[in-house]
Amino acid sequence: MIEDLNTLDRMLQNINHPFLHNSEQPMSKEDLLDILISTHLYPRSDLITFYSWKGGINGSSIFNNNYIELCSYGCSIDMRSAVSLYLLDQATQKSLNQVLPIIQSNSGDFIGIDLNENSCNFGKLLVSSPSITLSDKLVTIYDSLHSFVKTILECYKLKVYVLNESVLIVDYEKEAEISRILNPISDFWKE
Questions:
Q1: Are the CB atoms for 187 and 120 separated by under 8 Å?
Q2: b/e string for 151-175 if b means 16 or more Cβ within 10 A?
Q3: pLDDT, tens digit, for every residue of 9-66?
Q4: What is the pLDDT of residues 126-176, one digit of tens each?
Q5: Which one, of 102, 65, 106, lies nearest residue 85 by Cα?
Q6: What's the pTM?
Q7: Can you tell me whether residue 68 is helix, strand or coil?
Q8: For residues 14 and 8, is the Cβ–Cβ distance under 8 A?
Q9: pLDDT on residue 108
Q10: Which among 147, 145, 148, 167 is positioned nearest to 15, based on CA atoms?
Q11: First vs last Cα of the chain: how many Å apart?
Q12: Residue 134: C-alpha distances to residues 114, 139, 174, 189 (Å)
């Protein structure tokens, strides 16, 4: 996954994507482990690798429209914001059941990684998007964090995602085709 993250980094540099400039500094692996373990979340190595690459943007900037999307579902948010959203859910709705939100949009939709070792979706990414899925249930959208990175990389490579000044332009049909191929077991992309 590190090689794909480095390739994505170079690609984002070539188009001067603001995500690179707006991301928080990555936390140390030790700090990432501490925050996950203290929250009783399984510290998957792919999650540690992802957050060691870029720290994600500050979660509050999502809601003041002070960011440009990295993918069609928003941007990766910093670990502290992700854990805060998770803890807020645990204190109120308790609907996440060890799913950590890591990609956030300004509509409130998010993608989270399932960190429940006993779940059949362990390690998969799930989306919460009631307006699209017509359900309040989480739905698998990426087979793994690595397949998410590969999907995003492929979408930039094939110009499915195009940065036009301050807007990410998305070809949703092509995104679905690529996502379906790279994530064959995720329900969201099934026809």
A1: no
A2: bbbbbbeeebbebeeeebebbeeeb
A3: 999 999 988 888 888 889 999 999 999 999 999 999 999 999 999 998 877 776 666 6
A4: 998 877 777 778 999 999 999 999 999 999 999 999 998 778 999 999 999
A5: 102
A6: 0.93
A7: coil
A8: no
A9: 79
A10: 167
A11: 28
A12: 21, 11, 22, 14
- Rounded to the nearest 10 degrees, the angle between the axes of helix 145-157 and helix 2-14 is 30
Alpha helices in the chain (DSSP H): 2-14, 18-22, 29-38, 45-53, 79-91, 130-133, 145-157, 172-182
- Written as six digits, the tokens of 61 are 């900037």
Calculate the dihedral angle through the C-alpha atoms of 173, 174, 178, 183, rounding to the nearest 10 degrees. -20
Count, residues in the chain:
191
69: left (phi over 0), alpha (psi -120 to 50) or beta: beta
157: CB partners within 8 A, 6+ apart:
11
